[in-house]
Amino acid sequence: MQQRIEDDFGLVSYEYEQKMDGPNPLPFDDGIIENLPLVKEISATLQDDIKHYKTLIRRIGAVNPDAQQEYLEVKERFEFLTQQIDDLEKASKDLQEVIDELDVLMERDFIKTFKAVNTEFKEYFTRLFNGGEAQLVFSDEEDPVEGGVDIEARLPGRRSQGLSLLSGGERSLTAVALIFALLKVSPTPFCILDEVDAMLDESNVGRFIDLLQDLSSKTQFVIITHNRNTVQAADVIYGVTMGRDSTSQMISLKLEEVDENYVK
Length: 264
Hints:
Number of strands: 9
Strand order of the largest sheet: 3-4-5
Number of domains: 2
CATH architecture of the largest domain: 3-Layer(aba) Sandwich
Structural class: alpha/beta
Order of helices and strands: HEEHHHEHEEHEHEHEEH
Radius of gyration: 47 Å
Strand content: 15-25%
Oligomer: single chain
Number of helices: 9
Helix content: 40-55%
CATH superfamily of the largest domain: P-loop containing nucleotide triphosphate hydrolases
Distance between the termini: 138 Å
CATH class of the largest domain: Alpha Beta
Largest sheet: 3 strands, antiparallel
C-alpha cells in the first residue's frame, strides 16, 4: 500500500508543464496540496476501509447520466403541483367564507320571513275556522334553518294539538291558511290550486272564497274544482266534457258576459 501511494503521488505535480516525459501528471489548483493533512504513518486498516468503500460504491450501481435532468423535471412538476394545491386551498378557504356569510344571511332572512308568515298564518287560520288559534314553531330552536317547521293548532272549542291529529278537511283548511299566508307575505304572479276545497263543507268553502277574492288583487288563481260555490266565484270558467264522438272537448265561459238571455 505504501509503495502504491508513492507511485500514485509520482503522477501529481504542483505545477503542470506542457512538455514532460512519461504519463501526464494530474494538475491541482493552488492551495489544495498545501491544505491536505500530514500523514506520517499509514493506518493498518486503510486497505480494508478502501475495500469497504468500494463495495458501497458498487452497491450504488451505475451512474445515471440523465439523473440531473430527471431531477429538474420532477422538481419543476413538484413545484407546479404545490402551487396548484396552494391555489386550491386558498379557493376552498374563500368559498368557505362565502358559504359562512351566506348561512348567516339565509338564517337572518329566514327568521324574518318566518315571523311575517307566522303572523299572517295566525290571522288566516282564525278567519278560515271562524275562531281558534294556530302558530308555526321551529322543530329545532338551535338550528331553525335545517330543523324544519311544525304547526300547532287549536280549533274552536278544542285543545291544542298537532297537525297529524286533525281530520282531512281540517288539515286541508290549515294548509290553505299557510298557503294564503305565504302569498300575503310574498305574492306570486299566479297560483294553481288543485281541488283544495274537496273536503270542505259549504260554510268553510264560503270563507275560503272570501279570502281567495281578497288575495286575487295581486295573484291570479287557477283552481281545479268540482265545487259549485267555488265555480260561481270564478271570473272565467274552463270545462272539459266528452263529445258525442267520445273525445274530450274544452269549453270556456266568462261569467261577466253571462246575461239572462244566455241562461235561457
